[in-house]
Amino acid sequence: MTDVNDRCKINILIVDDEDLIRKALSRCFSNKGHHVVSAENGVIALEHLKSENIDLMILDLLMPEKNGFDVLTEMKKNIPVIVISAFSGTATDHFSSDEYPQVVGFIKKPFEHLNTVIEHIEGLYENYIRKI
Amino acid sequence: MNLIVQPIYKKYIKDDPLFLKNGHTIQCLIGDSGFLSLHQKTGDKTFMITAADHIAISSIKDVIPTYIFKISDIEKTSEPLNMALHKELLDIKKKYKINLAKTDVEQKRSELEHLNYFLKNKSDEKEITLADFHAKELVKKNKEKKLLSFLDYLNSEYEKSDFILEVLKNIWQDIKKTGTFYRLGFVIQSPNDNDKQKIDIVEFDGKIDRAKSISSDNEIQVPELNQFLANVFKRPVGKLISFFTEKDKNKFIFFFEAQAMDYDIIEIEAYMLDRISLLSIVMQKWYAESAEIKLLNQWQHLFKSYKNPIHVIDQDYKLIQSNYAHGAEYGVKKCYQILALRDSPCLNCPLLLKTKESPKEVKNLVSIQGEEFEIINSEFSINKQNYFFMIYENENEISLLKSDMIQAEKMSTIGQLSNHLAHELNNPLTGLKLYAEMLLSEHRLVSPVYENDMNEVLKAISRSQIILQDLKQFANEDQTELVGVDISEIIKKTMTLLKSVLRNRRIFIDLKPTEILAQPNYLQQVLFNLIKNSCQAMDDKGTLKVYQIESDRYFDFIIEDNGPGLPPQILNQMFKPFFTTKQVGQGTGLGLFISQKLMRRMNADLIFNSKFNKGTQFILRFNK
Fold first, then answer.
1. What is d(CA B486, CA B474) in angstroms, rounded to the nearest whole number?
2. What are phi and psi for residue A61, nearest 5 degrees?
């Protein structure tokens, strides 16, 4: 894992109700020099979105309080979102680019290796940056 | 007396007593030839009998004169003439009398003859009437005799299963003498329960008989019989002569199918009129009874086929009906003598408890030949006589059944639970894995011992995830993409995964490289499950065989072991989820269920060969 340079340092919001996943991902991205904010449900996530300047959101779908779909619907800022979910396979069916244009990628649970997941997320974000 | 004398000779004739008129007509002529020939009444024959100087005495009807005299002699004396005349008159009178008598006799004879003839005629007439009467009597008697023998015949054949055919054959024998027929038969129709007509049709053509039983909305009328028969038997129908009777709502039609006009209708009519009502009654009765017998047989079959004892007994335990005793034992032997081989009623017999008026609620458990049975009984009465219907249930089987049900229930709950569990555990496990990996990457260099420990943690996490994946797999409705795979390659890969369970068991794999349409992971899992099951069922010296059989339609891959096999009673359940014969903790009960499901997702099938009796044999059947 290599540290990102300053230009690439971004603010990431990680939303997952599973403590260990949230913490592991947070720490990995922090270790890489990114600024990480985390939320354990949709309500907190939406608060963070309001108060913080977020560049990328990693969002779990199944959560208590407000779930991932609620967050996607209610968020006002246009920032890229990477959805992580155990919905798997058919997950893409749940999203249309018209309905949730901010979703730039999906990652299926359970994850394989931590490194792979991190790289996948970085890759998806870079693709997004390149496109705009 | 009529004496006709030629007037010139009257002077010679003296009075004679024979001249007296006495009512008789004697005609006598006296005169010369001319005179005689004038008065004689002898038809055409006239004879000139005398010379001119002679006279003669002659009967008026005779051509030959009786006496002839010379006139010159008479002029001398008339005596001989008068004497001759007298004699002639006597003769004529005599003749007349004889004639009279003769005529009388003739008349009498003729009368007699007439009488005789009349009498003869009368007696002939009488004889003819008598013969006629006898003949008629005979015909009548014959007819009665025939009818009686027909009735006897019906009675004697009635019990036979082919009664109807026998009757038709009998009628066929009689009726074919009166003409040429194609076939004969009958239709019986009676209303059904549901407002429909039950119609039985039978026909016979001298060789083959056909029978049909159909249900129809409408009654069949005689005029449309032709069309009806054609429809039922799908063939052309000739000219029909039919006879029918109607009793209550049941209609009986008897028909003859004949060649046009080639039969004696009067004879057939006479024949059938005698029999139609008899036939109708007997046949309808037979049909009703045979339906009843069929029903009874069915019921008896059902009764007999029940594997546990069932019986009906009377108050004295005497057997009335059962599915285990013989006919001769009914009404004589008692249930406990035959079923339980006892001298007294079974302990806890509900009948015994009833007579003792035991207040306790006792489970009707009796011991019969070493096995425990629970009795389910009900009481009923016919003609004030009480009977008991009893069903014996093997207690062992009931408890097995109950435990099976509990097991199934348990498994279904565990199934739902594990599905839920799999979903719920997945999340923390994923977190745990990420965290462990993160720790490992952060602290790898700190200590090799720490690195090893973390790797152990990661291994445990991976194993847990595999178990969860297994649990989730059967709920997974992912679309299956089928690709061409070589099963022999897949089995090679599978065998390496199974090293730990294979151990010392002998394995024979005889598979040719065969490409089939499958999903490789699914196929691998199926093979894995089946081979693992087989190995677990066999002891260490067991043999496992994997080989293939190719038919026109299928590729069959066979997995066969020589273990103890599967008990037949689980055949229906083996593919159900959470069903297992393994001990608690040894299996999830999902292996065969998932395997079959996966095979079906690959448009293939998993078949258990129940005919294989040297162990267990499963067939993986792929369509070609």
1. 24
2. -90, -45
Residues in chain A: 132
Q: Give the CA distances from residue B465 to residues A113, B45, B203, B256, B428, in Å, rounded to whole numbers and listed in that order.
A: 13, 167, 75, 84, 11
What pLDDT, on a 0 to 100 scale, did the predictor assign at position A45?
92
Say how far apart CA A73 and CA B278 lie, in whole Å: 91
Q: Which pLDDT does position B472 carry in this prediction?
A: 66
Distance CA(B175)–CA(B178), nearest Å, equals 6
**Using the beta-carbon criterion (under 8 Å), do B430 and A89 form an inter-chain contact?**
no
Cα–Cα distance measured from residue B620 to residue B526, given in angstroms and rounded to the nearest whole number: 9
What sign has the CA pseudo-torsion A27, A30, A34, A36?
A: positive
Contacting residues for A29 by C-beta, under 8 A, at least 6 apart? A12, A14, A36, A118
Whole-number Å distance between alpha carbons of B258 and B420: 80
ipTM for the whole complex: 0.76
B360-390 residue pLDDT tens: 555 677 888 888 888 888 889 888 888 999 9
| B503 torsion bin: left (phi>0), alpha (psi -120 to 50), beta (else) | left
What is the pLDDT confidence band of residue A37, given thresholds at 50, 70 and 90?
A: very high
- Asked if B533 and B579 touch (Cβ cutoff 8 Å), the reply is no
CA A77 to chain centroid: 14
pLDDT(B445) > 70: no
Helices (H) and strands (E) in chain A, counts: 5, 5
pTM of the model: 0.38
Question: Out of B41-50, B212-221, B393-402, which region has the weakest mean confidence (pLDDT)?
Answer: B41-50
Taking the C-alpha atoms of residue A32 and residue A4, their distance in angstroms, rounded to an integer, is 6
Please, what is the end-to-end C-alpha distance for chain A in angstroms? 26
Under 8 Å between Cβ of B257 and B181: yes
Helix intervals (H) in B444-519: 448-473, 487-497, 499-502
Q: Inter-chain contact A109–B430, Cβ cutoff 8 Å?
A: yes
Tokens of A29: 């991205």
Token pair of B587 as six digits:
């299996």
Cβ(B375)–Cβ(B391) under 8 Å?
yes
Q: CA–CA separation, B606 vs B329, rounded Å? A: 50
Give me the helix-helix angle, B487-497 and B520-537, nearest 10°. Answer: 50
> Which pLDDT band, with edges at 50, 70 and 90, does A89 fall under?
very low
The amino acid at B2:
N
Residue B390: its H or E element: strand B385-394
**pLDDT value at B107 more than 80:** yes
Round the CA-based radius of gyration of chain A to a whole number and report it: 14
What pLDDT score does A68 carry? Answer: 85
Q: Which of A20, A99, A57 is nearest to B432 (CA)?
A: A20
Count of A–B CB contacts within 8 Å?
54
Rg over alpha carbons for chain B, rounded to the nearest Å, is 62
pLDDT of residue B362: 58
Given a contact cutoff of 8 angstroms between Cβ atoms, the answer to whether B366 and B373 are in contact is: yes
On whether the CB atoms of residues B526 and B490 are closer than 8 A, the answer is: no
Bridge partners (DSSP) listed for residue B607: B619
Residue of A nearest to B465 (CA): A110
Indicate the DSSP class of residue B328: G
Q: Which residues are B59's β-sheet partners?
A: B28
The answer to whether the CB atoms of B428 and A18 lie below 8 A apart is yes
Contacts with B, A 86-115, CB within 8 Å: 86, 89, 109-111, 113-115
Average pLDDT over residues B290-313: 85
- Indicate whether B68 pLDDT > 80: yes
For residues A59 and A17, what is the distance between their CA atoms, to the nearest angstrom?
Answer: 10
The DSSP secondary structure of B250-263, one letter per residue, reads: EEEEEEEEEEEEEE
Q: Would you say residue B257 has pLDDT above 50? A: yes
Among A2, A17, A21, the residue to mutate for chain B (most B Cβ within 10 A): A21
